[in-house]
Amino acid sequence: MITWNRKLLGAAKQxxxxxxxxxxxxxxxxxxxxxxxxxxSLANAFKRHGEPTPASFLKVRKERAELSPREELYLRVQAxxxxxxxxxxGMTDIILEKVDAALCKIAPxxxxxxxxxxxxxxxxxxxxxxxxxxxxxxxxxxxxxxxxGGLNQHDWTIFLAKLARWEEVVTAxxxxxxxxxxxxxxxxxxxxxxxxxxxxxxxxxxxxxFDIYKQVVHGANDFAQxxxxxxxxxxxxxxxxxxxxxxxxxxxxxxxxxxxxxWDLVLYHIIELRLGALGLSNVTCHFPQAWFQVVETWGWTxxxxxxxxxxxxxxxxFYGLQRAVGKYQQVLQKPVNYxxxxxxxAEAAISSSLGDAIVNGxxxxxxxxxxxxxxxxxxxxxxxxxxADNGIEWTRKVFLRTREDMRPRIAIYRxxxxxxxxx
Length: 423
Known about the structure:
10 helices, five-stranded mixed beta sheet
């Protein structure tokens, strides 16, 4: 029981003046008096000391009748916005919970993999870290051979063939390098635009093989299986996955939704769940909701971004990439040795005194935009070898199609007989 005196009543009055309701003021009063306080005990204390009721000390709200029409409209809009945000957040939480629960109930894939033991001899080279980049897959894109005039063809079946090719080259590279140097581990850095998205540009619906739901769910499953097979083949190596979102994964127009509302991030989340269901102890995933990631290897700083904020015209923005390295260093307030980006569909490396900008390739090749940008790059992804002494010491291109597959099948219409050169 609290022994109320004038000092305690004065403290209670001051607290009541900052609240508009008794119920919300009671916890603060109880904290100030270090005792439990109820509405009845507070009212009785004020009455015994001849004070007005506690409600008379509350902060007075502005009556609705005193509000101007503009203030009234503002309050109504605010109330609607708060209600809408609560509904959206509630729906989002429910959907994510149901997706997680459903995915966890799916039986884990059975990996048909024969684990390879470590080399029977100690490698003599410097320790290495393998860095594999994946970006601009644009799952769900359909490129029809006839509509492209024989330049290129792409659909989900061809994507699966390219994924198998990527997996084969990565596996062979790991097998080759672990014989030459002690491998510290393998990094798989996903740089965004793994999905094609929906309504990213006008007429996109005519270029899609699958809608966004299938892009995310089926794509995550296919990538998770591929990553799992590689990791299970080399159980003695540590695999670390990183990922940032791309502009094709965004929801709505630029600025309409926060960055975390990105289908690439949903795909990464499903990949993490699928890999977790397989119980692979040598796989770790780091998929934050920020638009960038910073990774250090032996003190070398790597910055991962998608690159859609780097502006350029007429191909790769070489000057823009050099400026971007300096800009990101100012933002992060630390040196950036390597800037890893995708977005531009053309592999490249640009060195400067500030740091190197490394641009990963794409999975599609020529598409409908080749007519606009006059560019049709080969489907290529990059693998880097990183050492403590030199940072990125070597780079390997993973060609996702054979030379025969890449040969254009252009229809050429001819008239007249060929000329024969006279002797």
